[in-house]
Structures are given as C-alpha cells and as structure tokens.
Design goal:
There is one protein chain. With about 80 residues, this protein is mainly α. It has one domain. The chain is about 70% helix and about 0% strand. The protein has three helices and no strands. The chain is globular and about 35 Å long. The model has no long low-confidence stretch (mean pLDDT about 90).
Length: about 80
C-alpha cells in the first residue's frame, strides 16, 4: 500500500530536516544533489503515481525555502 498524503507530509517534514543537515555537511552542489536525490527518489518511489506531481511541487518549495538553486527531479 502506498503512503497517503498525511504520511507523505510527515516524510516531507523529515526530508526538510535532512536538507538542513545535508546543506551543512555538503555545501557544494556537486556533493549535495546526489545525496538529496537519493532521499527524494526513495520518497517518490514509495508514493502513489497520482501524488507525484504534488510531491515534486512540495519538494521544489522545500528546496526554495532552503535557498537551494536547481530543481528536483534532475534530468
């Protein structure tokens, strides 16, 4: 069973906390993005395909809040 949006919100909250830690530990984009993408990809894989556009938008807003330049997913 795929997580519902309430569970996804909780996972996003955890990812948001992790972004702060990742930025401190890996301030360069070349170090940050692979580590972040691994976490975000895992969340996307666990989500319902119908939630993925919503989830992508929420992740983008999260990154913007942290001042991260670039976008997820990275192609």
């Amino acid at each position: 069973m795929k997580p519902n949006r309430l569970r996804l919100e909780r996972s996003l909250d955890e990812l948001d906390i992790e972004v702060s830690s990742l930025l401190q530990a890996h301030p360069s984009a070349t170090e940050f993005w692979p580590r972040f993408a691994e976490l975000a990809d895992e969340l996307m894989q666990r989500s319902d395909p119908l939630d993925q556009d919503w989830l992508t938008a929420r992740i983008g807003a999260m990154l913007s809040t942290h001042g991260v330049q670039g976008c997820y997913p990275m192609f």
